[in-house]
Amino acid sequence: MNDRLERIENALLNSIPADDESIRTVLESMKYSLTAGGKRVRPVLVLEFAKLCGGTEEAAMPFACAIEMIHTYSLIHDDLPCMDNDDMRRGKPTNHKVFGEAAAVLGGDALLTLAFETALSEKAAALNGYEKCALAGRLLASCAGAEGMIGGQIIDIESEGKNAAIERLRLMDRLKTGALIKAACLLGCISAGADDVQKKAAEEYAACIGLAFQIVDDMLDVTSDEATLGKPIGSDAENEKSTYVSLLGLEKCRSLVAELTDEAKKSLSVFSGDTSFLSDFAETLRDRRK
Amino acid sequence: MNDRLERIENALLNSIPADDESIRTVLESMKYSLTAGGKRVRPVLVLEFAKLCGGTEEAAMPFACAIEMIHTYSLIHDDLPCMDNDDMRRGKPTNHKVFGEAAAVLGGDALLTLAFETALSEKAAALNGYEKCALAGRLLASCAGAEGMIGGQIIDIESEGKNAAIERLRLMDRLKTGALIKAACLLGCISAGADDVQKKAAEEYAACIGLAFQIVDDMLDVTSDEATLGKPIGSDAENEKSTYVSLLGLEKCRSLVAELTDEAKKSLSVFSGDTSFLSDFAETLRDRRK
Fold first, then answer.
1. pLDDT at position A239, please?
2. Per the structure, how many domains does chain A have?
3. A219: domain CATH number?
4. Shortest distance, CA B275 to any CA of chain A (angstroms)
5. Of the candidates A117, A146, A155, which has its C-beta nearest B138's C-beta?
6. Is the reported ipTM for this assembly greater than 0.85?
7. pTM above the 0.95 mark?
8. Cβ within 8 Å, pair B106-A82
């Protein structure tokens, strides 16, 4: 796992264009957030599903990098003063606090753009063929766009201070977090040329861990502390946001996460290969402290 | 020409996801700017080069829409308070003035994402094949990213109040405006399966009209009026921006634009088809009043 994480970090770093004095600000903005030490959940899922379906890490790596770039850009833009107005992220000042708002907007834009350049790159095409690259890019775009992640973000913004009902919260999370988790699992399948049964199982696994992931996020905002989490806790309550905790209570959340983790593990039964990593991964996400 | 513009408008409008109450704000933000009556220079170039190289308008249309979406998103983000802070665009209030900053950031993000979804769509692939779609997406990303349009924007921002030299102005424009104009001409070539000689000629044409376009823009900021231009004039001087006019004077600009237009027309000589539209188009851009 640690070797793989290191290879992901290297691939991400190598994807950023070479230093150029005239555009240095935007390159530094991109690099700062892309290498800020995320958990790399999405790229790990891409690589593991590729392996499980008979593909190679090398071929899936451009897709893994692309999805992490999209995740990172979304965090930069979410943190902006006109959005969530957050000063800290992963224990470090947010992008706009370091580079200013303009460079944060542009750095995010550039990472989103670089995601597609990476997924459609000469290297990606040589390893996967044009069809898989085009399908990967299409999936990334549909999961990250207005009917996916961005749609979830607008629902999130418009729900603040409104005590949204559980149905709205589910829709928001399915779009805001769920769509990219689903894309991650399917990107691995695409790279490996998986069949429909495998893709369906990957989607089920993604739906379960995606929801569990979000519920755990809400729980940590209540039960963790700022030093562990790398950002202030209690922000949901402060922003008058409905969360799974505020709607269902901590106990119910805990049992729901346990159920979803079990379901995620069960969905892996269709694969003939070694699914222990993905089983353990679901448990790691369940038990995480940050 | 008018029929074609109407088909472009229809294709753009039809590309936006169907109305959905829960994400309506971001859909309206996208639609507002995408249908705000631009000149559609880039999609027209895509379609005309496709036709000139033996392709079809139908096959090139998804690429034409994609590049206009990228152009539109860049205008939305450029107008933001943290960037150029403009209130008016094409005679209408800018996106953030209507929808607020958060929806403007997200609407721009969603248009950029939709550009790739459109270029890689099922329809685009059925008409062009996966290879051309992947190459089109790759070209769009490289021309729109940190080493293209976004790089030009960061240079622009960092040059304000600094009386930049002509070399820096050239670099900025080559990236900020030139990269997308080049992409437009080449996208038409890609859709039509043009050969290298044709692609090189398309790039030369693009370089000439791209630079001429930017010089005319600078001239109009001095010589036009707000009612004709649809936005306040004199903004470059106000922002202490170096422009071709401030560096070279109006007369020199005028003769430069004339030379570039002639060069653009000459570059079309390699094509065996009817190049009168592209010749006239170069002249139209030279003579435009807004």
1. 74
2. 1
3. 1.10.600.10
4. 32
5. A117
6. yes
7. yes
8. no
